[in-house]
Amino acid sequence: MKSIYVAGPMRGYELFNFPAFDAASAVLRAQGWEVFSPAEHDRSSGFDPSIADMDAQNFDVTQAFRWDIETLLHVDAVYFLRGWEASDRKST
Fold it and tell me: 3: number of CA atoms within 13 Å, CB side?
């Protein structure tokens, strides 16, 4: 099975754009891809996209970014959501 990473913007989007990540992931899985989604990973790490203040959640953005980079090194492809070029996951 081929693997794919879903890339796209999060900050500045309602619910951190998780609905777009989830929709793309569902379509890609239906096409037979093994999907790696930062939204799914962040959610499994305890991040709640309905809480706009990441600091209030003690979410480690640096660790999330490390997962992104490590994952990108091992997937076969990358799927880019609309607006990906404006994506900003750096810590503030």
Answer: 9
Question: Tokens 């810590």 — which residue?
Answer: 91
What are the start-end ranges of the E strands in the chain?
3-7, 34-36, 77-80
pLDDT in tens, 25-41: 999 999 999 999 999 99
* Rounded Cα distance, 25 and 19, in Å: 10
**pTM score of the predicted model:** 0.89
User: DSSP assignment of 44-66, as one string?
Assistant: HTT--TT---TGGGT--HHHHHH
Contact 78, 5 (CB under 8 A): yes
